[in-house]
Amino acid sequence: MGKKRIRTSLIILTRNEIEGLRAVLSRIPTDTVDEVFAVDYRSKDGTVEYFRTHGIAVIKQRKPGRAEAFRIGVTHASGEYLIFFSPDGNEDPRDIPALVDKLLLGYDLVIASRFLTGSRNEEDDQLFKFRAWANRGLTCLANVFFRGHVSDTINGYRAITRQAYSSMHLDAKGFAVEYQMTIRAMKRGLHIAEIPTLEGNRIGGKSTSYAIPTGIQFVGYLLREVWIGNNF
User: Fold this and answer.
1) What is the dihedral of CA 167, 172, 173, 176, to 10 degrees?
2) Is the pLDDT of residue 75 over 70?
3) What is the CATH number of domain 8-228?
4) What number of other Cβ atoms are within 10 A of residue 184's Cβ?
5) Is residue 55 packed enough to be buried (19+ CB in 10 Å), middle (13-18) or exposed (0-12)?
6) Are 86 and 13 in contact (CB under 8 A)?
7) Axis crossing angle, helix 130-146 with helix 211-228, rounded to the nearest 10
8) What does the pLDDT look like over 11-51, one tens digit per residue?
């Protein structure tokens, strides 16, 4: 009997997420993917040990940043379809099969949207929704400049084909990598799909994405993408 073909790779991204991991890991539908492993950046709270106790391999990330975690994940993944997941409580593991299904239908990039009908954004219950409106504004600008029709260009909960990822030559740093990925998918004319997601409240840990500096960084990358056009 030949070796099982690995088609789908679930890449779990962590940095000190033991509380979320304890709450989420058992709910991840690992039977719907062929490969699961974690990319961890210097966790000190037992995250790595928890993964290993549950038989999940951990790839150590030496340099900081979300973009670096994506790069390492893609490098180590064996599958053609790549799903990025963070076990911090925000991302609903029940969406993983739906993300995979869209790729199987022929889409190049699938985003779990917090702004489609039937979705939920973490800030929906808050009086001041700065991040939600900033996300909508950045998404609107991307759609205008690059003729897109995406409702959530920024959410990192997404899946992509290896071929599409390789075609983008991503060079953004930190959290801007997801925004750049969406923009370059628009530029390439790739097939983008979205599914509504119910974003939960963060469980433990601490977000390293700070609204104002991150927003400024995103605007800088947007202007750069306008400037360079398809020269990437």
Assistant:
1) -100
2) yes
3) 3.90.550.10
4) 22
5) exposed
6) yes
7) 0
8) 999 999 999 999 999 999 999 999 999 999 999 999 999 99
Residue 226, both tokens? 């306008």
Say if CB 21 and CB 203 are below 8 A apart: no
Domain boundaries, the chain: 8-228
Strand 8-14 with 158-161, pairing: unpaired
Give residue for tokens 């801007």. 176
- When pLDDT is cut at 50, 70 and 90, the band that residue 213 belongs to is confident
pTM for this predicted structure: 0.94
Structure tokens at 173: 């740093």
Query: What is the amino acid identity at position 93?
Result: P
Of 21, 86, 16, nearest to 45 by C-alpha is: 16
Residues in the chain: 232
- The one-letter code for the residue type at 167 is S
- Which are the contacts of 16, defined by CB distance < 8 A and separation ≥ 6? 43, 44, 45, 47, 205, 206
